[in-house]
Amino acid sequence: MIVHQMERIPGVVAAGLTEIGIDTSNQSNTGIIPPGSNKQVNIGQYNVGIGYFDAMGLKLKAGRWFDPNRPVDDATLPYPRQPDVEKAIAQRGVNVVVNEYAAKKLGFDSPQDAVGKTVKSELFSPEDGMVNINIIGVVGDSRFRTVRTPIDPIMFRKVTTGPGWMIIRYRGDPSTVMAAVERQWKQITTEVPFNAKFSEDIMAEMYKKEDARAQIFGAFSLLAVVIGCLGLFGLAAFTAERRTKEIGIRKVLGARTRDIVRLLVWQFSRPVLVANIIAWPVAWWLMRDWLNGFDQRIALTPVPFVIAALIALGIAVATVVGHAMKVARANPIHALRYE
What is the pTM of this model? Predict the structure, then answer.
């Protein structure tokens, strides 16, 4: 079997066949009737191999995973289709493992409550009728697609053949393991080209647009800060020049350098604070609309807005304080003679 051959490769920890992998586009759903109900609940159903649990890194919450020594766990259907075998499996019932979300959607209070329960569905052809589906285990929810896509309620069935993807977990040098897997693949078949990707590369491709959007936003934000700082510096120079005589009089009357600096800095800090108060509602509305596009998102608390205000205020102070210090330290005699 191809999975066993891959598991013998040095560095490979686990391998398993699957119908659902990282960012696979296929979706397979079926209507499941929970115990004591006559309404169907839409649940995703995917065939997986015995090694999928370890290869994908699933966490068992209750019950057990499929056991290769228990024939009743095997739901493999022959190809081409054999109606007698299919009917026998339908009459026997099928053992499945569901994720936490599926257990919750089926009405169970906890993963432990779902284990050992039987639900029903028309898994095969209509002539086979309703099939008893025995839940033998519950695993933690896994996100197979982007964070914008809600987590699916999933039911796993164990098969030995059929799924079109393979998940391989490894340790060691990625390029070495990839090369060994490719060599092994070409020894098995030359008719099907080797096509494998690292999960990190798939994830990077999934979030490529988000990363590009973040870079563009960061670049324009930096440009806006630079333009704002130039404007503040020019305004500080212009204001200090207009108030040269006032500053000189203040110093003659006993004002200290730090008093003059505090006066000028506060004058330019007020517009920054007012601008933040105006910007907060707009930013909150835009960020809320953007975050609502994600299935899992951070809470939009006042903390980011306060931090942004402090950073903006710090930049404004750093921009103005240098010029303010220069003006405040000037000899008041020159200021009083200024026309």
Answer: 0.77
